[in-house]
From TrEMBL:
<keyword id="KW-0963">Cytoplasm</keyword>
<comment type="function">
    <text>Involved in urease metallocenter assembly. Binds nickel. Probably functions as a nickel donor during metallocenter assembly.</text>
</comment>
<dbReference type="InterPro" id="IPR004029">
    <property type="entry name" value="UreE_N"/>
</dbReference>
<dbReference type="InterPro" id="IPR007864">
    <property type="entry name" value="UreE_C_dom"/>
</dbReference>
<dbReference type="InterPro" id="IPR012406">
    <property type="entry name" value="UreE"/>
</dbReference>
<protein>
    <recommendedName>
        <fullName>Urease accessory protein UreE</fullName>
    </recommendedName>
</protein>
<feature type="compositionally biased region" description="Basic and acidic residues">
    <location>
        <begin position="157"/>
        <end position="171"/>
    </location>
</feature>
<comment type="similarity">
    <text>Belongs to the UreE family.</text>
</comment>
<dbReference type="Pfam" id="PF02814">
    <property type="entry name" value="UreE_N"/>
</dbReference>
<dbReference type="Pfam" id="PF05194">
    <property type="entry name" value="UreE_C"/>
</dbReference>
<keyword id="KW-0533">Nickel</keyword>
<feature type="domain" description="UreE urease accessory N-terminal">
    <location>
        <begin position="5"/>
        <end position="71"/>
    </location>
</feature>
<dbReference type="InterPro" id="IPR036118">
    <property type="entry name" value="UreE_N_sf"/>
</dbReference>
<feature type="region of interest" description="Disordered">
    <location>
        <begin position="140"/>
        <end position="171"/>
    </location>
</feature>
<keyword id="KW-0143">Chaperone</keyword>
Length: 171
């Protein structure tokens, strides 16, 4: 039996045949067998994701099957912290602290969203941030190495080393 294959992703589509709902970690993929959400008739569509390189599938992306059909990606809401600063400069300083810890973060003009972590929460509160727990889809910024989302997720830790990282490759 031929398993339909996805080799490209689009944002330009009208009517998907199905959807697939994944958390942020499960949306960072290159090659794997996947199964759509249940259709109205109770069936699913199994397919092979086979992209040229690993990438973060974003909420609203369309996975293009080799027969032209589209499966729409839905991001499942996750347990996040929404961080606000007292002003834009303060938010920028908080973003620097978060980035210095290599944490995946979704950045808007007014907030930063992160996975819930009590150590990071305490650090941010100590820096004067406002931190609120929310449930929302998580679409973090892409990584600096290759433009795709970094596949690794560090837990909170202290850094006693410089951040030149030429020896690290994040692909």
């Amino acid at each position: 039996m031929h398993l339909p294959t996805v080799t490209s992703v689009t944002r330009d589509f009208d009517t998907p045949v199905a959807s697939i709902t994944l958390d942020e970690t499960a949306r960072h993929r290159r090659r794997m067998r996947m199964v759509s959400d249940r259709l109205e008739n109770g069936e699913t569509i199994a397919f092979l994701l086979d992209l040229p390189q690993a990438r973060l599938l974003r909420h609203g992306d369309g996975l293009v099957l080799d027969d032209g059909r589209i499966i729409e990606v839905h991001a499942v809401p996750e347990a996040l912290m929404e961080v606000r600063g007292s002003d834009p400069r303060h938010l920028l300083s908080l973003a620097w602290q978060i980035g210095n810890r290599h944490l995946a973060a979704e950045i808007t003009t007014e907030t930063i969203r992160l996975r819930r972590d009590h150590v990071i929460r305490d650090m941010l509160l100590g820096l004067g941030a406002s931190v609120t727990d929310i449930e929302a889809p998580f679409d973090p910024e892409g990584g600096a190495y290759g433009g795709a989302h970094s596949a690794h997720h560090h837990q909170a830790h202290d850094h006693a080393h410089a951040h030149g990282h030429p020896e690290h490759s994040h692909d």
